[in-house]
Design brief:
heterodimer; A: alpha/beta; 8-stranded parallel β-barrel; 9 helices; B: alpha/beta; Elongation Factor Tu (Ef-tu), domain 3; globular
């Protein structure tokens, strides 16, 4: 598979708004050349879950946003062209409730100009609540990847975002790679609960050690499979921890909600030609 | 009615400094420098402040901006202590550095003509009405201001505003100052009496919904500053749902921080909020 795997710094799904909201903070280059994973797109529009959608907990956020998105049609007509014009390398996150929906999304996105790749959202922290296809076993995830891969040109990457469950992640990564995934993103938000017991997903610095362990395990077991680290990336040390553990790239998510300039700073710091900064710090 | 509105011209993420901190009743008023933010501010837009040790940020209404002072341009925010994050903010000493993003969101729409305006606010959330009143007065609008609170300590003072608005009405639930009563119970009367063309409201949802309904009944426009908890304030996270009905009559859920915080009162689906 010759598809270029994005990186080294990407915007994680669901944390870059529609792109427009990030632009004022994206630095001198704006979104130009930025690997931008969109919020998850579904075939039909979704208004998302009820409030409160986000609760703050020590070291992170618990969220049950419910994948609000305008649906594929509207995305193709408005958000995608804007991102393409802004110069972003657009990786569209896709989510569905059936294998057929994933395949439909992949087929139609394969014809849309400017789609650099896909990211298959499986292992979301609350699939039932979000009405998504339940992915419990590695072969479920692999089935989704295969359905997407069949419909999407092989010269463009299909990423798969997995649950950072250390007991299952290696098996999941292997199955997905065999099914045609160009890289695995480790990982999604950690299944969690709001203080009132509602289901949600935990993200932010609190999950970084968990996701880092998962990345390390996947890289050790499958050194030939590109792994993208996602979870608590907020500054140079937290990003390089993933790269040192074998990740080819990192995704920045929750940190953008805390400091929208995080991606611009990390892009500058991790540019291949950049001089190593003396001390990277984050407020 | 022709109205001018639109997005605040770009937000910035900057380091600022606390240049004054004052306890006023139950609240803490902070004066901050934040390069570029006061210059871009329009009444109704807000700032999101980074709190040490917290991932989520605190969204704060802007109570006042000064184009110049001994510290350069500054902005005032009102902090009500509700948890560890706001307690940390309220305890910031003069000279402390703060990181903030702003101005965020869509501000109040200003009438093109010199019309009659009623401004209704409750508690600390009434803060954006003060800079709004100044802008309206500059446009020659006749401004009636109603400020209310459970008690005097939770009331934002209208003392200064008295100099440049037509009338000020003060209501407290316990009668500690001004008229006794809940502002939400008096909205129809207040709107009728003011003969306002536009009603602006800022405060809890019940006050906003009441103001929108009273305006509708009186044939006035309403603009309400909605407060929905937000994790980022920038529109990135989609964490602050605001149920509205679009111009096309279709129900939608928008982001309170990005498509709001100020929206037309008759567009909000209050029962779904």
């Amino acid at each position: 598979m010759s598809a270029r795997v994005p990186g080294p710094v990407m915007v994680a799904a669901g944390c870059g708004g529609t792109g427009r909201e990030l632009e004022p903070y994206a630095g001198p280059e704006g979104l130009d050349g930025l690997d931008f994973v969109t919020r998850s797109i579904t075939l039909d529009p979704r208004s998302g879950g009820p409030g409160p959608r986000i609760a703050e907990v020590p070291g992170g956020l618990v969220n049950a946003v419910g994948l609000p998105n305008p649906g594929l049609e509207h995305f193709l007509a408005t958000e995608l062209p804007w991102l393409v014009r802004a110069g972003a390398r657009v990786v569209v996150s896709v989510a569905g409730s059936t294998l057929g929906e994933y395949a439909d999304l992949a087929r139609r996105l394969s014809r849309a100009p400017g789609v650099a790749g896909l990211e298959v959202n499986v292992g979301a922290p609350d699939e039932d609540g979000a009405g998504l296809l339940a992915v419990r076993e590695p072969f479920h995830a692999a089935g989704v990847v295969a359905a997407v891969r069949r419909e999407f040109p092989t010269d463009r990457p299909v990423l798969v975002k997995l649950r950072p469950d250390v007991s299952r992640v290696v098996e999941g990564a292997r199955s997905c790679h065999e099914a045609g995934a160009s890289a695995v993103v480790v990982g999604n938000a950690v299944p969690a609960a709001f203080p009132d017991g509602r289901s949600g997903g935990l993200s932010g610095p609190a999950v970084a050690p968990v996701a880092l362990r998962c990345v390390a395990e996947v890289h050790r077991a499958l050194p030939g499979v590109p792994v993208i680290g996602c979870g608590g990336v907020r500054d140079l040390p937290s990003a390089t921890a993933y790269l040192d553990a074998g990740a080819t790239a990192v995704q920045v998510g929750t940190a953008l909600l805390h400091d929208p300039t995080t991606v611009a700073r990390l892009r500058a710091a991790l540019r291949p030609t950049a001089h190593p900064p003396a001390a990277e710090e984050t407020p | 009615m022709a109205e001018e509105r639109g997005r605040a011209p770009g937000a910035v993420h900057v380091d600022g400094e606390v240049v004054a901190s004052k306890r006023v009743g139950a609240y803490r008023h902070l004066t901050l420098t934040a390069p570029g933010v006061p210059e871009r501010f329009r009444a109704g837009s807000f700032v999101a402040v980074t709190v040490a040790g917290h991932v989520a940020r605190r969204a704060l209404w802007v109570h006042r901006v000064r184009a110049s002072s001994a510290f350069g341009p500054t902005l005032d925010v009102v902090v009500e202590v509700r948890g560890s994050g706001t307690a940390w903010l309220a305890a910031l000493p003069v000279g402390a550095r703060v990181t903030l993003t702003g101005p965020l969101g869509r501000p109040f729409a200003l009438p093109r003509d010199a019309v009659s305006c009623l401004l209704v606010g409750e508690g600390y959330a009434a803060a954006p009405l003060f800079p709004l009143a100044e802008r309206l007065r500059e446009r020659g609008c006749s401004v009636s201001l109603v400020v209310s609170a459970p008690d005097e300590s939770h009331l934002l003072s209208a003392l200064e505003a008295r100099r440049w608005v037509r009338s000020v009405t003060v209501l407290t639930a316990d009668g500690s100052v001004g008229r006794r009563g809940h502002v939400a119970d008096h909205l129809h009367e207040l709107v009728e009496r003011s003969d306002a063309d536009v009603v602006y409201a800022a405060g809890p949802a019940a006050v906003l919904a009441g103001a929108a309904a009273a305006a509708e009944r009186a044939g006035a426009w309403s603009q309400v500053a909605v407060e929905v908890p937000t994790a980022c304030g920038t529109g990135l996270c989609h964490g602050c749902p605001l149920p509205v009905v679009g111009e096309d009559g279709v129900d939608r859920v928008v982001r309170a921080c990005a498509e709001g915080p100020v929206v037309r009162g008759d567009r909000v689906r209050w029962d779904a909020l």
